[in-house]
Give the backbone structure.
Amino acid sequence: MELEPGTPVFLEELVARPPQYIGRTVRATGTLHSYSPKTDRAALVDGQSLLLIDTKLLGVHQYHIGQTYQLIGVVVASAQEDHEELPKDLLEDVRYSLDIVLQARVVREVDGLDMAIYRKSVVLLRAFLQDETKTAITNPV
């Protein structure tokens, strides 16, 4: 079984168009806002966007609230119980979608990552890959 690499996405993209991402493997980066070992659920925030994370597949991991994490996983449709423990005051301050959850399979701590530079690099990578695709279509080998 071959696993897909995670396509870098920003949390605001996931929140803005949740159905578009269901079933896709993505790489999301943000600050850990909360984690519940009881439910294996976490909330990741970036700016004004929040994403729910299912951490069951990650095994035992020591999470630190306020640290920056990058997760790779599949976006799945959310169930009502996925968001029962979210702090209500948090939901007033951020944009979120309760329609999706990231079922994470890889986690890594990326504290010290300059998010502004990371965002620019993802945008440049997307532009480069789009240009490469156009070139391949117009100049087949």
Q: What stands out?
A: The two ends are 30 Å apart (CA to CA). The first strand starts at residue 7 and ends at 8. The chain has one domain: 7-138. The chain is about 30% helix and 35% strand.
